[in-house]
Structures are given as structure tokens and as C-alpha cells.
Amino acid sequence: MLRGFYFITEQRLSREGIISDVRQAISAGVCAVQYRNKEASTREMFEEALKLRKICRKTPLIINDRVDIALAVKADGVHLGQDDMPIKSARKILGKNKIIGLTAHSLPEAEEAQKQGADYLGVSPIFLTHTKNDAGKPVGTGLIIKIKSKCRVPIVAIGGISLENAEEVVQAGADALCAVSAVVTKVNLSGEIKKFQRLFDNRCLRKDSVTNLADF
User: Fold this and answer.
1) Consecutive sets of 10 residues in the chain, 216 residues long: mean pLDDT of each?
2) How far is residue 173's CA from residue 45's CA, in Å, rounded to a whole number?
3) Residue 72 near residue 46 (C-beta atoms within 8 A)
4) What are phi and psi of 57, to 5 degrees?
5) Domain region containing 140
6) Which amino acid positions bind 2-[(2R,5Z)-2-carboxy-4-methylthiazol-5(2H)-ylidene]ethyl phosphate, per UniProt (predicted)?
7) Annotated binding site
């Protein structure tokens, strides 16, 4: 199950390049790596994804949008947008054991994604973001709460998340979160990711405290 920090690559903002970023992200214990590189050609994506496949031995490697690249490099799965290949078609190509995530901007989209067999939902954009130009209007943490009440699949919150607002996202029920610019632009990428990871650890501690109090 996805839990914690979900890392998405971003070539435009990276200080040291995607390969270095992913190595640091894995050292920080991220729950998954999504390879996204809008600047690269198909050949460049293929070659870079091959390198990442070798690095991500124990961490799930998810390819953004490109089912063909995911299949070619034997990635663990693919993340699709609302305008990408339908989940059922992607499943036929990749097989039943691969991870397929889908972006959802509303409750109806989330419910339909679950119905179609999505393994997780990328709910976005939670807050205003400048990392993705076509992200759309912020949906807020309220949408996370609504989706959690209706859907069983894990939620990965994405868009405009920083250390200042991440706790709100975690408390709303997100199983994982991604904060692209908040980590890839920093000198110590691994250290920044660990700060976000602690928020999930703290949530578990709070839940345990409530459970223990209930025993008295």
C-alpha cells in the first residue's frame, strides 16, 4: 500500500538531474517513484527509464502517461491522466499485476476510476501549483475527505503541497503525498523528503494515543 512520500521527477526544476534526484529520494525511503519528463523525446525517456529501473530495485517505479515506456522497461506501473489511455486498455497491455494510478479532480472521477480498477488515485491539485501549467483550479483538502468516505483505493495528494500545508493534507486522510518543487529545488533533497515522511509517522502516533486512551 502507498504510504508516505510519493516522489515525482521534474527535470525543469532539478538541481542535479533526475537520476541523482531519484537516488536521493530512494535513500529517504519514498513509497514510490513516478518518472515524469515532459522535456525528453521517446528515446531519451526510454533510456532514462531503463536507468531508473535498475535504481528502483525495491521501490515501485511508475511511469507517467506512457504505457509503452512502462511496458518496455518492465516498470512496476503507470500513472494516467483523464485524457490518457483508458485504465482497462492499459491493464490489458501491462497485465493484472501492474500498478495503475489515475488522476482525479472530483468525486465522480474518483468513483469512476475505482470502478474501472485503478490501484490508487492521484488527487490534484490540492493547492495552487505552478509546477504543472495545466493542473487546473485547486480542489482543496475537502475533496480528499469526500473521496476517502466513498472510495477504498489509496489517495496520493498532489499539487501545491509544502511543509507549511502538508499536515492539513495528512490529517484529511491522504495515504501519500507529493511535493515536487518543495524538494527538488533544495540542496538536501533527501533531508527535505524526510521532513514530510515524519508527518505520517506523527499521524500514526496520534492514532495510537487515541486507541490507548480508549482502553482505559
Assistant:
1) 94 96 98 96 98 97 98 98 96 97 98 98 91 75 98 97 97 97 96 97 54 34
2) 33
3) yes
4) -75, -40
5) 4-214
6) 129-131, 160, 180-181
7) 34-38, 64-65, 84, 103, 129-132, 160, 180-181
Q: What is the pLDDT of residues 155-181, one digit of tens each?
A: 999 999 999 999 999 999 999 999 999
Radius of gyration of the chain (CA): 17
Q: Which CATH number characterizes residue 138's domain? A: 3.20.20.70
Which residues are known binding-site members for Mg(2+)? Answer: 65, 84
| DSSP letter (8 states) at residue 99 | E
Instruction: Kindly give the interhelix angle for 107-116 and 141-150, rounded to the nearest 10 degrees.
Output: 40
Listing DSSP states for 133-155 in one string gives TT--S---HHHHHHHHHH--S-E
How many CB atoms neighbour CB 112 within 10 A?
15
Residue in 157, 160, 181 with CA at minimum distance from that of residue 171: 157
Report the distance separating Cα 212 and Cα 195, nearest Å: 26
Count structural domains, the chain: 1
Burial of 115-148, coded b for 16+ CB within 10 Å and e otherwise, reads eeebbbbbbbbbbebebbeebeeebebebbebbb
CA distance 18 to 28: 15
Compute the distance between CA of residue 136 and CA of residue 31 in angstroms, rounded to an integer.
Answer: 26
Element (H, E) at 193: helix 189-214
pTM of the model: 0.92
